[in-house]
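Researcher: Here's the sequence for the chain we discussed earlier.
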Amino acid sequence: MDSFSHLTVLSLEQATTLPYLTMHLAQEGMRVIRVENPPRGDPNRWIGAQALAEEGMNIYFFPNNAGKEALTLNLASQTGREILHALIQKLPVDIFATNQRPKDYAKLGIDYDTLRALKPDLIWVGITGFGPESNEPAYDPVIQARAGWMDITGEPDRAPMVFGLPLVDLGAGEQGYGQVMRALYLRERTGKGSRVDISMFQSAVSWMVSPFILAGDFDQNVSRRGNTHQFFGPVSVYPTCDGFIYLAIGNDKQWANIVATPEFQSLALEKYQRNAGRMADLQKMNEAFGEVMQTRATDEWLEFFNALGVPVSRVNTMREVIADESVQRNMLTAHDARSDTTLHFPAPVVVTDHLRANNMQIKFPPRLGQDNEKIFGALGYDVGELKANGVI
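Model: Thanks. This is the structure I predict for it:
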């Protein structure tokens, strides 16, 4: 039996950061029930192509919501709040999570004190933009800008750039996952629940350890460097005659191995023997290095540098990543019989026994309110009446 299959998560969630966290909890084998406000639910349901020809099941919703059940519940109504509280006690719920703004906690009946009074060993999780004391709205790129990420991303002579993934959302979700597991461990040891607050801004800043210390304690300029590295060279993306590779020289021995070859003999200069010398003349050295790189095809250079023990990679397209044999061996699938649609997900870092037991299959992302009848009905509620009254 999977060690987490007895746990139930009730999550008032939307957008990316909390759904990403709860998807990982579902992958661990927990029962995850997402709660959405009727009649349209999570705004992400309506973004992207309508691949299933169904309203509210657009493709931007799919990536972070596999493995879950779904309820609708209008928490602006007294009845809706009462039902939520009944769910906490009767399911029962082990982990309640939300990414609503703190100003809404009390009026929706989801604040920690209220829910803890219903179930003292409850683990309560709140993900906010700037912490529980702030009601400021936030999206991933806004926090990337404020946390300094954009200032160190892009070319030095161009405008700051946003990162290619919503890494603030994903990072806060990952840190939330760790804190949930910590809270579960503490509950196992003490029998007590706990409150977990994740600030997306603080999470983003916490990843900035190196630039934070370099700029704050040593007054070093840390800003945009394109594809180069602040301390090592040559490190960059280099065009080949048929594509791009990323090459990272991490020590002087690797450099010596490279310039000992006929291809790079022209760069076997005394001033470049040490990393400091290469960094002192980085632009000129990189230009000369890049000229050599354009003389051969990507596959030839990959073989060349791998033989020398130098870290190197083709700059893969997403389709090339998906086709990678190691990725294909660790793929999760979610199949929807109604539409005969199968989704493919990259496996989590650690594949759990729960996933292996299910042949790496997880539940298809849920339709809006698809489990209303099953869950509310099992608790004795008249689902038709609740719907007629705008509660679900």
